[in-house]
Amino acid sequence: MYYIANWKMFGDKKSLNSLNKVIKLSKINKNNKFKLIYCPPYTLLDLFYKKLKNTSIEVGAQNCHENEIYGAYTGSINSKMIKNVGAKYVIIGHSENRSDGESDILINKKIKSSIKNGLKIIFCIGETLSQRKKKLTNKILTNQITKGLSNVKKLSNVLFAYEPIWSIGTGVIPNKDDLEKDIIFIKNKLRNNFKLKNAKVLYGGSVNPKNIAILKKINIIDGFLVGGASQDSKKFIDIVKKTVI
Ligand code: PGA
What we know:
By secondary structure, the chain is an alpha/beta fold. The protein has helices at residues 19-26, 42-52, 79-84, 95-98, 104-116, 129-133, 137-148, 176-194, 212-215, 233-244, and strands spanning 2-6, 35-39, 58-61, 89-92, 120-125, 158-162, 201-204, 223-226. Helix 1 (19-26) runs parallel beside helix 10 and helix 7 (137-148) packs parallel to helix 8. The structure holds 2-phosphoglycolic acid.
């Protein structure tokens, strides 16, 4: 099971202390039942890497520039730089970036250049509430997957995070049966169209220590991408403990 902490635009140097408890938890990870990945803001990547380097916890970035090589892009960070500070993952296609204008074509470029630079991808997909109401979820997911993965090599380096946009930061999660169907749909799509037999599909959107009891019943989910609750290490640990320990 994967547990990915997406800190978004939160965190400062002091927040490093909150990792101590999580490091303790990582030491009782018998048989590698779970994998913990922290995605702090760029400013903390290097510090997180150093703090976590002798543990099983890995580090990822939350986005990157699409260019594979360095270039004159003021304010941008590419996957080469992310890799250089010890991070192994990068989140790509998060809805908060899609809503800022990130297109499927741009997302596809980011995925390709990040894989070339040796990063693993946490590829986010998900529909809006109005799309869901219009029963367009499968269409939207198909579109995002097909365009995002177009001509991507080494698909085994991609983890998928299904994050319905209406669920992110709202406290609302999909009902169990619907979510199960959505995850099955994604897995089937990846198996049939991309020959990915064992794709890891995580769920993200308002995961917290309370609703984890419901989410854990869906045993085809391979992990969770946790935003708000991951900034509180007690809550993050609770989510892990309630599911795998
Ligand atoms: P949330 O965020 O857990 O705060 O809903 C999840 C995400 O955006 O990845």
